[in-house]
Design brief:
The complex is a heterotrimer of chains A (275), B (259) and C (253).
Chain A: H1 3-8, H2 11-28, H3 30-33, H4 66-102, H5 104-119, H6 122-133, H7 137-148, H8 150-163, H9 167-174, H10 179-215, H11 226-234, H12 242-274
Helix pairs in contact in A: 2-4, 2-12, 4-5, 4-7, 4-8, 4-10, 4-12, 5-8, 6-7, 7-10, 8-10, 9-10, 10-11, 10-12, 11-12
Chain B: E1 5-16, E2 19-31, E3 36-40, H1 47-54, E4 62-67, E5 70-71, H2 77-83, E6 87-90, H3 104-115, H4 120-133, H5 150-162, E7 168-172, H6 180-197, E8 200-205, H7 208-214, E9 217-222, E10 225-231, H8 232-237, H9 242-250, H10 255-258
Parallel strand pairs in B: 3-8, 3-9, 6-7, 7-8
Antiparallel strand pairs in B: 1-2, 1-4, 4-5, 9-10
Chain C: E1 3-15, E2 21-33, E3 37-41, H1 48-55, E4 63-71, E5 82-85, H2 99-111, H3 115-128, H4 134-139, H5 147-159, E6 165-169, H6 177-194, E7 197-202, H7 205-209, E8 214-219, E9 222-227, H8 229-234, H9 239-251
Parallel strand pairs in C: 3-7, 3-8, 5-6, 6-7
Antiparallel strand pairs in C: 1-2, 1-4, 8-9
Helix pairs in contact in C: 2-3, 2-5, 3-5, 5-6
Classes of the chains: A mainly alpha (275), B alpha/beta (259), C alpha/beta (253).
């Protein structure tokens, strides 16, 4: 059975992937749906949702369209979430592979660095990083990646330690393969599956961290973010709660989609390895 | 004639619970070109450790290994990797000796890539040649190793070992996990390859039946030491040490021959 | 000898993930007698293990049986009336429990004993499989034992339910020849003393010729022939049996 077939049998995977595909389509087509600057004033302030056909989800305190904000915000959320999670996994995998494969002093050194990063709470580290260097998309991505690479690093190292002792690694050494090639071509690909299982949690965590940073005003000021929208709405929470609720729902849906899709994927791949 | 491999005073201990447990103690032997030396011993006698020491997959605590006149323990990593073309190993478990993602052709071509300047096309031709030499259908080349039977996998392992034209192959219990009938076929294959290429074998096993079928000389190992040494016929007919006697007695015999 | 079981046109198919279901065993006619030592011999994929699992009611859930398997008495309960020893002695023991507990649990379930009696009987069993210092072994975890010791422990666990039938599936393939000879001798003498039926699966026709009453040769899911070792080895009726014997002569004594 192919991977696609197995995924199609897991209802949670279908639900998750559907949510994510919709979100990505929305994010990709944002400039077409709402061509102007989503931060520009486009109507009367504080219009309620579902009353004006041109501002379907209403407007905020400054008269900016909420739907345009949510749609453009999806771009930021997904971009930051995926890129920073990918960076964290790549960094973690490289560190974990080198530490596990080389052993000895290098292992000791890399793992103490990992410890150092892990003892500082991830969100505080990202916060400190962004507030020192200044908020921009690149900085936010870097900050989140730095805050979340340690878990994949530890996981990969543990896998590599067990795979390193297998016969096929000895076989690769016996035919004279270069150690770096053994580490990254023979060992790493076989150490990745559990990390991919973790990736959904990392992506979801990255999206939430980005939202939290934006909520505190540390997001890229030139982009709409859901966190920023929720923070904006806070001032008028009693009179216009929808301003915070709508981006909040978008955030919940995204994280849920990521979790479900990840869960389904792990389920599908583990079924393959059992067969 | 100068021996191909000359091992002397090889010693290795493993740390266990803070103290060193000796696995191989002061082991010396040599192998000539196109010769088969069997290292026989019960489990725990240090055979597999010795296989890995001789191929320098682990480093000994003491002793020397002269291969083709060179002390391989003194070779720098790069020179050692080049040397591995001529010093190969086949492991016991054909299930775990390959990257789970590998195809047959990749498993064999990896070695060609490292040790020859062949182009991709030449490598493909060579892989098919090698598969034919180990009597496998060349059309299996693009199959995943996991689709093959144990005997077929062991043939691929032998083809991989032969790819770099070695002068010595260490066979670490290479037929022990196979059915008796498959075992006979693989031994037959190994003998034919030896005739064709004059490769020498260091054959590690616990089974004197297999030894009788393939070995010229035998060294009996117990508790990390060589306790007896002689021609295969001698040791099987008149074992001297208690270890060798137990090994001879333990080989299954067809009932009629025993009675 | 009294008949224990009659197989008629017996077969097993494994249902694949989709529409492909593989026939592992087909059209087997075989009588098993109470108290005999029957060897099932064949190469991998011959169906010998499938038959062993079917006899012990241990087939996986996606297996489908057809034909008849008629027991003279009621169908035996796995663990109690029928003991099973697997090829990999490590795999059949719980890695995080002392081996004594594993055996004692079987005793408690199948012999309905209290904890203390079960532990005492466990020590007797460990002594019966000729493990030195049963008290120490009972407290050991599987990884602290050698392969031969683990297989003896697995044998003790298989005997713990006081079975009438012992099924041993390649119990010595993972062991070296010296330990193999000792384990075979042990299985043989224990089953003889207790009058147990032994069903022994192996790919080595010479190995089983040393102790089996009858040998059944399997190939590609079919029973090729069955007979006493003398019949099978002296006068093999089938080319395939001759092939197995030749293979042994090439790699044995």
């Amino acid at each position: 059975m192919s991977l696609a077939q197995r995924i199609s049998r897991a209802p949670e995977a279908i639900a998750g992937i559907t949510i994510l595909i919709c979100l990505m389509l929305v994010a990709l087509s944002a400039p077409l749906l709402f061509p102007g600057d989503p931060l520009a004033i486009s109507g009367t302030p504080l219009l309620r949702p579902f009353v004006d056909a041109t501002h379907w989800l209403g407007t905020d305190r400054l008269g900016r369209d909420v739907l345009a904000g949510v749609v453009h915000g999806a771009r930021t959320s997904l971009l930051v979430g995926l890129v920073s999670a990918a960076a964290a996994i790549v960094l973690g995998s490289v560190v974990g592979t080198l530490a596990g494969f080389a052993g000895g002093l290098l292992d000791e050194l890399l793992m103490r660095v990992t410890d150092a990063f892990q003892t500082v709470p991830g969100f505080l580290m990202a916060l400190a990083f962004v507030s020192t260097i200044g908020p921009s998309l690149m900085v936010v991505v870097t900050a989140i990646a730095l805050a979340s690479w340690t878990a994949p690093a530890r996981l990969v190292r543990a896998e590599v330690l067990s795979i390193r002792e297998r016969d096929y690694v000895a076989s690769a050494r016996a035919i004279g393969m270069h150690p770096l090639k053994i580490a990254f071509r023979e060992i790493l690909p076989n150490a990745l599956p559990p990390v991919l299982g973790l990736s959904a949690i990392i992506v979801a965590g990255a999206i939430l961290t980005e939202a939290a940073l934006s909520f505190l005003g540390l997001g890229d000021p030139n982009r709409v973010t859901w966190g920023g929208m929720i923070a904006e709405g806070r001032a008028v929470l009693r009179s216009a709660p929808f301003l915070s609720i709508i981006p909040g729902v978008a955030l919940v849906l995204t994280v849920l989609g990521v979790y479900l899709a990840g869960e389904g994927l792990v389920e599908a791949t583990s079924r393959r390895s059992r067969a | 004639m100068r021996p191909l491999l000359q091992v002397s005073g090889l010693t290795k201990a493993f740390k266990r619970g803070g103290r060193g447990v000796p696995a191989v103690q002061d082991v010396s032997f040599d192998i000539g070109p196109a010769e088969t030396l069997a290292l026989v011993g019960p489990s725990g006698s240090g055979k597999s450790t010795l296989a890995r020491l001789v191929t320098r997959l682990i480093e000994p605590d003491g002793g020397s290994i002269l291969f083709e006149g060179e002390d391989i323990l003194r070779l720098k990593p790069k020179a050692m990797r080049a040397m591995r073309a001529r010093l190969q190993i086949v492991f016991q478990d054909p299930g775990s000796a390959f990257n789970p993602r590998a195809t047959v052709s990749r498993a064999i071509a990896d070695s060609l890539k490292i040790h020859t300047g062949f182009s991709q096309g030449e490598r493909r031709t060579r892989v098919r040649d090698l598969l034919e030499r180990v009597r496998l259908n060349p059309d299996l080349a693009e199959r995943s190793i996991h689709d093959l039977s144990g005997g077929q996998r062991q043939r691929v392992a032998i083809a991989r070992a032969m790819a770099s034209s070695p002068t010595l192959i260490v066979l670490d219990e290479a037929v022990s996990a196979l059915d008796v009938s498959v075992r006979a076929e693989i031994l037959h294959l190994l003998k034919r390859l030896q005739r064709e290429t004059r490769v020498a074998y260091l054959f590690i096993t616990h089974d004197l039946g297999v030894v009788r079928a393939i070995a010229d000389r035998v060294a009996v190992l117990d508790d990390g030491r060589i306790v007896e040494h002689g021609s295969a016929q001698e040791i099987i007919a008149t074992p001297q040490s208690p270890t060798a006697q137990a090994l001879v007695a333990a080989v299954p015999r067809l009932r009629l021959q025993a009675q | 000898m009294r008949r224990l079981l009659q197989l008629k046109e017996f077969g097993v198919a494994y249902e694949g993930g989709g529409d492909n279901s593989a026939l592992a065993l087909e059209a087997v006619d075989l009588e098993i007698r109470a108290g005999e030592k029957l060897a099932l011999v064949g190469e991998s994929g011959s169906g010998k293990t499938t038959l062993a699992l079917a006899l012990a009611s241990l087939l996986p859930s996606h297996a489908r049986r057809f034909g008849t398997m008629a027991w003279e008495a009621s169908e035996p309960r796995p663990g109690g009336d029928i003991g099973f020893v697997f090829q990999d002695p490590g795999g059949s023991l719980n890695p995080v429990r002392p081996v004594g507990d594993t055996i004692a649990e079987v005793v408690r379930i199948h012999r309905h004993q209290d904890r203390r009696t079960a532990m005492r009987m466990t020590l007797t069993l460990l002594d019966q499989v000729r493990l030195p210092d049963p008290e120490r072994i009972a407290r050991a975890y599987p990884h602290q034992l050698s392969g031969g010791q683990r297989q003896r422990v697995a044998l003790a666990a298989a005997l713990a339910g006081d079975p009438k039938i012992l099924v041993a599936d390649e119990p010595t393939s993972a062991l070296d020849t010296v330990v193999q000879a000792a384990v075979i001798e042990l299985i043989q003498s224990l089953t003889t003393t207790a009058g147990m039926t032994l069903i022994f699966i192996s790919h080595d026709i010479a190995l089983v010729s040393e102790f089996a009453d009858r040998i059944a040769v399997f190939r590609s899911g079919r029973l090729v022939e069955v007979g006493t070792p003398d019949e099978i080895i002296f006068a093999p009726g089938q080319a395939y049996t001759r092939h197995l014997i030749e293979a042994h002569r090439a790699v044995g004594f």
